[in-house]
Amino acid sequence: MRQIDNFIAGEYTGAASGRRFDKRSPLDNRIIASIAEAGRPEIDAAVGAARAALHGEWGALSTEQRVDLLYGVADEITRRFEDFVAAEMADTGQPGHVMRHVFIPRGAANFKVFADVIKNVPAESFRMATPDGRGALNYAIRVPKGVVGVICPWNAPFMLMTWKVGPALACGNTVVVKPSEESPQTAALLGEVMNAVGIPKGVYNVVHGLGPDSAGEFLTRHPGVDAITFTGETRTGTAIMQAAAEGMRDVSFELGGKNAGIVFADCDFDAAVEGISRAAFLNTGQVCLGTERVYVERPIFERFVQALKARAEAVKYGRPEDHDSSYGPLISHEHRNKVLSYYRKAVELGATVVTGGGVPDVPDDLAEGAWVQPTIWTGLADDAAPVREEIFGPCCHVRPFDSEDEVVKLANDTPYGLATTIWTTNLARAHRVAARVDVGITWVNSWFLRDLRTPFGGSKQSGIGREGGVHSLEFYTETRNVCVKL
Ligand SMILES: NC(=O)c1ccc[n+]([C@@H]2O[C@H](COP(=O)([O-])OP(=O)(O)OC[C@H]3O[C@@H](n4cnc5c(N)ncnc54)[C@H](O)[C@@H]3O)[C@@H](O)[C@H]2O)c1
Ligand SMILES: O=C/C=C/C=C(\O)C(=O)O
Description:
Belongs to the aldehyde dehydrogenase family. This protein has helices at residues 40-55, 57-60, 63-79, 81-92, 96-120, 157-170, 185-197, 215-221, 234-245, 269-281, 301-313, 333-348, 385-388, 404-412, 427-436, 469-476; strands spanning 2-4, 6-8, 11-13, 20-24, 31-36, 125-128, 136-144, 147-151, 174-178, 204-206, 227-231, 250-254, 259-263, 291-297, 352-355, 375-378, 395-401, 416-417, 419-423, 441-444, 459-460, 463-464, 477-485. It is an alpha/beta fold and 486 residues long. A seven-stranded mixed sheet has the order 15-16-17-14-13-19-20, with helices on both faces. It has a six-stranded mixed sheet with strand order 10-9-8-11-12-22, with helices on both faces. The protein has a three-stranded mixed sheet with strand order 1-5-4, with no helix packed on it. Helix 5 (96-120) runs parallel beside helix 6 and helix 10 crosses helix 11 (301-313). Residues 155-156, 160, 163, 287-289, 450, 456 line the site of (2Z,4E)-2-hydroxy-6-oxohexa-2,4-dienoic acid.
């Protein structure tokens, strides 16, 4: 069993209280790690270390020096690639090929991309006239926000954590990261990388623990934290925003979704089935950008449902290291209880269960894991809970539609506004519908295709602010104007 400690001022340390909590494998429910639970003293120490680094060696570096160090971080992640793959597979139970091709490479990319952004961003400047005819020159400079609190979820732990830490450090901030209690390992491992490449002590700190009345709340309420970036549930975002109001700290939120997939009859059928099945079932449906509501134009509805069913039934349950495994468990039994409660509710509300709806038969050694079947429903009312609420599981409801106006209305009938995916070969329609869907991110004939320079975030209750490319700088820096009378 692994011992995972907090990482404060470049050192791994337990908690003064001696408190620890267990991490269980989602694959078979075995305890795989014991994690030190940070209390107020550890949060104080981590925030203090972050502040000291800001006023010390880190704060004195030039942008070029910081950029070089961040390239070093990316290279070291790549050098220790298999360690990160193993740590994340252990925490999430997701297949190795997803780790190797999507989540861990993105961790390295998140440092490289923002190092490039900060190196290349121009300064804003305005020349102005003055009554004496000599004029004045305004220019903006960007300074770090300070100590940034980073609160992360468990569904793609390393990718989502570095998506925040990369730009925060590129902009010259220091961070205190609180990973999810369900996925502490890659954040802990990144401490070794930081030390190996010579990132000054205190720049990157990790405190472990739970949310309310634990490390998460202590960190977000700490007056020494200047800004908070959070990815997780909308309800948690509300609690964090209340904490951030004290002291008027800035927030950046990437929250939940109930994303629509829109499939027109003129789509490339096979590509659409493949795309929607990835959007619904990748990472066992635990992707904020995933599709839990699918709208299919009536002429191809039945055929589409059958093709999606075939995809769902083709998943291969297995351990992450099994080469032919394509599908992992949910993160925990607690989360499985939630997902299964929606599976039951859908039936109670009269859904037709096209496939799935329960717990699969898995080999004996996996029987205690948090497995659920990929599940497809039809026939639910538009206001049924499984169609309205974020389930965060491998499931979707498929419903026919007859017109563009109707489907836009259906897609927008939600308090969320994160992402949508549209499938059509009619270019004009693609642009038209994309402009009418109230979300932060629209994919046309694709899903989760990420250019890290683009604005990323949610509308409505799916988030506040945008991260990605120069948009991250809006949050991770304070812009100051200097006006020089000539
Ligand atoms: N929009 C996006 O980009 C995006 C990306 C990934 C996940 N998500 C969302 O994340 C959710 C799944 O992740 P989750 O279950 O880990 O989310 P969560 O909100 O339960 O937990 C996220 C983090 O917040 C901490 N936390 C909980 N309560 C807190 C409190 N009161 N104060 C401070 N910290 C607290 C948790 O310990 C954890 O580290 C889904 O809703 C999903 O849609 C959104
Ligand atoms: O589960 C959510 C996935 C979010 C993805 C990103 O934040 C990203 O690709 O940067």
